[in-house]
Amino acid sequence: MSSLPPVGRLRWTDVPAPLRARLEACFDAPVTNAVTPAGGFGHQLAAALTLADGRRFFVKAAPTEDPLTVANLHESVVLSSLPPGAPAPDLVGVHHTADWTAVVIAHLDGPHPDLSPDSSDPGQLWALLDKLTSSAAPPPYTAAVAATPSGAASLHGWDVLLANPPGDLEPDVRHRLHELAELEAAWPGLAHGDRIVHGDLRADNMVRDLHLGVTFVDWAHATTGPACIDAVSLAPQLVLAGHTPQDVARLLDEHPASATEPLASTAFLAALTGHWHRNARLPSPPGAPGLRAYQQRAAAAGLTLLGPRLR
Ligand SMILES: Nc1ncnc2c1ncn2[C@@H]1O[C@H](COP(=O)(O)OP(=O)(O)OP(=O)(O)O)[C@@H](O)[C@H]1O
Ligand SMILES: [Mg+2]
Question: Are residues 125 and 152 in the same domain?
């Protein structure tokens, strides 16, 4: 019945029976199929459930004591506080049963967007980011994220590498370590703002829905901050998808979300790249076998964009 998870995720049948029964009672129909989508690095249940009557729902679930439950609950309050028209699915409900917590979200129907240069999806993405960040976040959203510290604001890595430079560090990176650490150190002071920030924009955290178009999912890291955070996060993803660093650098220079905040954009790009570069060298966490290789590729992409912004 359940398809095998691609990255060691929990499956629908791993969820305690009382929680499965509770969800089926709320849906008023039995679950006939559960598909774990490809993408992401988490270990929790994240599955598209099909019901006997054909309806579909997306469910994320983990033991209540698992730190991912805090993230899922944060996502649930974010989803219910985003302004109308935000590129996000609707929250359906939250259930606590048998020491597990499940968050049920409207199902989006489609693949991840194609971020390659041949696709029209990147253009749609930049337009969505412009719309999302062109005005201040509405008060319900600001209140929803107020109690959760911003993960983006605390990203760093060059400081750690500078304190103890690994022997195999590329010579041009070693040469720039002081400057990179300095830029990164400026980031927390620039990380404040009143805009909606998704905080984890990658192709696998978006779905190109048949009806809604490109829609952002996985709002677990959502926060408020400067408009540039999501635009800068997207930039290395586009390089990884085949865009030239020159084209992406030009987009960052021109897009309203990043063009208006060049210092914060550079400092955040340094912090994000440092985070990737440092973490890529750590042992693989359980249940996320692809994470370190991804961070290595992302760090290299980030550095190609950072190069022209350095002294
Ligand atoms: N509402 C939805 N409808 C359909 N598919 C979805 C929906 N939300 C997420 N997905 C798909 O499920 C995958 C996992 O979801 P999500 O990213 O929210 O889980 P996660 O465990 O928080 O992920 P991560 O591993 O990135 O931490 C996404 O990559 C996406 O393909
Ligand atoms: Mg995800």
Answer: yes
pLDDT (0 to 100) of residue 38: 79
Q: Is residue 2 part of a domain?
A: no
Residue-wise pLDDT for 254-286, tens only, equals 999 999 999 999 999 999 999 999 999 999 988
284 and 194 share one domain:
yes
Count of domains for the chain = 2
Residue 4 lies in a domain: no
- Residue nearest ligand 1's atom 4 by CA: 108
Could you give the CA distance from residue 80 to residue 205 in angstroms, rounded to a whole number?
Answer: 18
pLDDT of residue 8: 67
Of ligand 1's listed atoms, the one at least distance from the Cα of 41 is: 25
Query: Do residues 281 and 244 share a domain?
Result: yes
Q: Answer yes or no: do 226 and 169 share one domain.
A: yes
Minimum CA distance residue for ligand 1 atom 1? 107
Per the structure, the complete domain to which residue 261 belongs is given by 121-309
Residue 298 located in a structural domain: yes
Is 6 a domain residue?
no
CA of 201 to the centre of ligand 2 (A): 9
Ligand found nearest the CA of 41: 1
Pocket probe for ligand 1: among 9, 109, 217, the residue whose CB has the most ligand atoms within 8 Å is 217
37-47 pLDDT, tens per residue? Answer: 877 778 899 99
141 and 279 share one domain: yes
Last residue of a domain, one of 82, 106, 130: 106
